[in-house]
Amino acid sequence: MKGTYALELVFASYCVAVIAAFTAIYFGARVRSLSGSTKTFWFAIGAFCLGTGIWSMHFVGMSAYKMPMEMEMSFDFKLTATSLIIAVLASGLGLKAITSEALSLPQLIIHAFIMGTGVFTMHYTGMFAMKMDPAMQYDNFLVFISGVIAVVACGAALWICRNIDKAGERYSFWVKLVAALVMGVAICGMHYTGMAAVSFPIESQMAASNTLRGNWMGTPTAIASSIFILLLVYIAFQDFRELERIKKEKMATEQTALHAAFNDKITNLPNRTAFEDQLLKVIGKSDSFTLLYLELNSYRDMSKHYGEAQAQELARTFSERLRGSFGEAIYIARNSTTGFFVLLNSANKSEATQQAKQFVDKNDQPLNINGESYWPTFSVGFSSYPSSGTNTRLLIRQAQVVKTKFSTQPVTRMVKDEAVVA
């Protein structure tokens, strides 16, 4: 004998399947970005939600079935509970595959087979929970087809969940929804194919030991499970959003700390550490270049007579002129309180000297330091790679030892220092 279906519960079972599928997609995408105990916790919640959703769909689908001869449907409690545990374990395996760092095609197929077998086992354990005498009979071909559908559906679900992020943030929700609708069809297809494989002998009677009785449980189960799963998804969404906020704040703090470690806070130029690292990289390329060292001689005088804050403003304004005048430089950095480095592409010392003179000529106006005009005095030293040296220590030392003094103040243009290379 064959039974019939209550279409409203069939539709309800599909809705539960869609919610379960959406949960799998959602948790799969979110849990992958977590780590440690937080990942373990939400992994367990995700597996429970997905397993409960698949099991609820099965249970609602069973309740949608109207038994022949108007028999009242009943279930063995232990087998029903066992089917739920199997669903959760199978879902955990699927979620593990979804959230793993890498998943090759052979691994996906193996996970799909094991997960599909778990869903298949859950379904027929739930069917066996409907104990009766004589026992229900099965069409082996349809049982096999339902197993194939379970494996294929799980494989498709794993593939979708692994690739859903490629859709982009703009279409993410709609792609997830469409994927959940398709997966819902696959889940229901497996269940109702399995139900089609069942037939009941005319004289069949439900076992007296079945403790879960009545067809009334379908609708409450569908509503309760859907609300429960959606509530957990909402809680997870809020938690993940908070985790994302904390993660972004941490990244911003780390970026600020990293910037502070390699940049001068007054001029916002790279500092000595960053400069030496960059110099090593440039040397590694084996291309010739000139290293320009500028010593801001008037810094200490400014600090002595007008205060450190005024001197720092002098350094900041001076650094802006460096950026504007040596825009084509490889690198500009602040080496010390009074020292600046400029890396130039040219290895010709006369060209570098000319660029330094042009720097003075282009900036023949005084610097505006907090509303007051000031003509800074600075010295310029040169070294060239590879003629002056082939390592950072020699290049920096050469540039700092022999310097030419410049002033942007009218009349005094260039005065030679008496420093000599040791």
Q: Overview of this structure, please?
A:
By secondary structure, this protein is α+β, with helices and mostly antiparallel strands. It folds into two domains: 4-253, no CATH class; 272-416, Alpha-Beta Plaits, CATH 3.30.70.270. It is 61% helix and 14% strand. The longest helix has 45 residues, at 218-262. The termini are far apart.
Features:
two-stranded antiparallel sheet, 422 residues, Alpha-Beta Plaits, 6-stranded antiparallel beta sheet, single chain
How would you concisely characterize the structure shown here?
Residues 287-422 form the GGDEF domain. This protein is an alpha+beta fold and 422 residues long. It has twelve helices and 16 strands.
Give the number of helices.
12
SS-based class: alpha+beta
What is the percent of helical residues? Answer: 55-70%
Uncertain runs: 410-422
Main β-sheet, spatial strand arrangement: 10-11-9-14-15-16
Radius of gyration: 37 Å
Shape, principal axes of CA atoms = rod-shaped
Tell me how many strands there are.
16
The tally of structural domains comes to: 2
Query: Biggest sheet: strands, sense, closure?
Result: 6 strands, antiparallel
Average of per-residue pLDDT values? 79
Task: Return the string of H and E elements.
Answer: EHHEEHHEEHHEEEHHEHHEEHEEEHEE
Portion of residues in beta strands equals: 5-15%
Measured distance between first and last alpha carbons: 107 Å
Transmembrane segments: 6-29, 41-65, 77-96, 108-129, 141-161, 173-194, 214-237
Organism: Pseudomaricurvus hydrocarbonicus
InterPro entries: GGDEF_dom, MHYT_dom, Nucleotide_cyclase, Rev_trsase/Diguanyl_cyclase
Domain MHYT: 5-201
